[in-house]
Amino acid sequence: MSLADGDFLTVANLLNIVRQVSINAVIAVGMTYVILSGGIDLSVGSVLALAGTLTAGLLIAGLPPYLAIAAGLACGLLLGALNGLLVAYLGMPSIIVTLATMGIARGLGLLYTGGYPVDGLPEWFGLLGRGKLLGIPNPVLLMLAIFALAWLLLSRTAFGRHVYAIGGNEDATRLSGVRVKRNKLMVYAISGFTAALAGLVLSSRLMSGQPSAGVSFELDAIAAVVMGGIPITGGRGSVIGTLIGALTLGVLNNGLNMMGISPYLQIVIRGVIILFAIYIGRERARRT
Amino acid sequence: MPYVLELTGISKRFPGVQALSGIDFALAAGEVHALLGENGAGKSTLMKILCGVYRPDEGRLLIDGEERHFHDYREATAAGVATIFQEFSLVPDLNAVENIFLGRELTRRGLLQKAAMRQRAMALFDKLGYAVPLDRPVGTLSVAQQQFVEIAKALSNDARILVLDEPTAPLTPEETQHLFKVMRELQAQGVAMVFISHHLDEIFEVAQRITVLRDGRKIGCVATDEVDMNRLVEMMVGRSLESSFPLRTPPPADAPLMLDVEAIQLQRGDPVNQLHVRAGEILGFAGVVGSGRSELALGLIGELKTARKQVRFDGKPVRLGDPAQALELGIGLLPENRKADGLILDASLRDNISLNNLAKYRRFGGLIDGAKEMAATLKSLADAHVKAPSPHTAVGTLSGGNQQKVVIARWLQQRCRLLIFDEPTRGIDVGAKAEIYQLIHAMAAAGHAVILISSELPEIVGLSHRVAVFRQGAITATLEGEAIHPNQIMLHATGAQHALS
């Protein structure tokens, strides 16, 4: 057993786990906002792929780096805002809206690339996904920065409080005079933005814009949020929980791999552990 | 006397509060036993223990002399305990028959026996002496009809112990009388009932014994014919109450108009109303439940879409497109249903109170100044006389009266120039009511305009400077001065005025 050998607990392996987790964790930050507000965002995986391929494509086309990166992020922000517009202002259910935009974003990414990976990215672009600062992988630093920012926004600003309030009781929040629609729009825009950011990191790590990347990433992000103790109906919980949830899933994956468990069985075990964790969380919530 | 139900030495603790300590309570067959106490006295907790929602920390529960431990609501139901909660447990999209048999449908070879169920339901309503449309979704029925569906459902379960938690709160006087008739009928059939109400006159009318709780303790159990109202109020609050209505001081006659609406119509074809309210004035909205008072209020703040002409606030024409715009101008509404529309039950007192006040605590470009927020929260909790273990307590764990005060505390912070209170004292005990009247009065005295919607005539009469009486969506009369009298209001509200003339 490698776990007992000590490979598992080396600094190198732990950093490796955090690096592997970072992309899902960044997506899960945006998902945290959406779920806290009482919604769901299924489009994140497709947005990730579209933003990643768009930036890669524009870089290869010779656009200045900052413009290409800004375009990728803006594309995520706008798609998120579109989700928000449809959910908040037209009152459509988030699960349907984001299911549709999931398809739209995926299709746009495939159309843009013709279905082929966008390769041949400039060397410096790898810095984001492969570089290190003081021995810590850049994606990890980026992830920590995003979590710190998200935590500050959620727990220390009026916007954050309103996100919780909307998830807790949208009617009461609206009647008290809070601009619920505007806040919901922002929530989905944030989710689109973090998905796009994760897309850039992924493209950088692979040194390639993959139009088929990110399939089922929305489920991993939702799992991280829910493992982190946020009820799927929203209103309660913390983005710190999401970080812990994402890390737990990462440790689990890594541990199962190192124990040499069949990848098929791993999927089953992961599902069972998620169910178990949510059960524990609910029981704890009931008792208080 | 053989008791169908005995609770002995019941204690229950929640984080931060001892909700019940050592309560004894006994119920005889065919008895209506009133449970009386201020909000937060422990009535609801005791009843939730009886019907299996909570488990007691200490004490025993005996049914027919046999000790029982209910783990959930179903087990209590199976033992013959049925509860009509303040919040109905009906499925709004199903009709009365489907609701009554929900989960216990009559089937033959896996198929529903609709005719048989319908017949059984009709027999139940016959027994109750109350006709309810059986084919319409219950969500479209009146509150009273829904309540009788609840009762029929309980009876279909062969309930022998029926808990009625403030059943009369949403009912009109006639409907209440009918409920009492049904209760006497059930009594004759041997059903034992626990009756919770804040209306002492109702308790005297229908109950044989009264148990009074205060701060989670049992103060006493008395027979209705051996006690008077003053004594009961003393038992409840531990002191005798001075008059619950503050002395009314009229606003100066030249007080500026705060809100002036030339014409407002909810939907095409609805009556067109006109109204105004002055600074420092309390304008009452009277009328029976469903007469359009709340809808007009929601229309005023833009929560419901309306057609309007010439809306002026503080002398300036305004649009009032949604509650957020209303708030910006200084108009706030405290909704009728505080649990569904007023509060975030899972969130803390602080978060609920700060909800629309956060802009005041901004610093460093948007961060909330926590210390300043907490100071303001504590001040408004004190101003509104909220009793709670801490500002971090979840609002949902508080009693109804304290929850209402939390909503008030939120708006006290806003310094609104017009506040609309929709049924501010529904389901609230005598002591808390008096405090809320004081708060409303103090606001008007400080120059705010107030619109008070209430189904309780004494409240309207005791507090309002002017009263707009609603009937079928229209303001049929606006009463002032001596004309503000319960009889006058009822005449206009019921349309008897038309019948007479």
Structure description:
The complex is a heterodimer of chains A (about 290) and B (about 500). Chain A is an all-alpha fold. In chain A, about 75% of the residues lie in helices and about 0% in strands. Chain A contains 13 helices and 2 strands. Chain A is globular, with a radius of gyration of 19 Å. By secondary structure, chain B is an alpha/beta fold. Chain B has a 6-stranded mixed beta sheet, with helices on both faces. In chain B, strands 18-21-22-15-23-24 form a 6-stranded mixed beta sheet, with helices on both faces. In chain B, helix 6 (about 175-190) links the parallel strand 9 (about 160-165) and strand 10. In chain B, helix 4 crosses helix 5. The radius of gyration of chain B is 24 Å and the shape is globular. Chain B starts with a strand and ends with a helix. The mean pLDDT of chain B is about 85. The interface of A and B includes residues 165 and 177 of A.
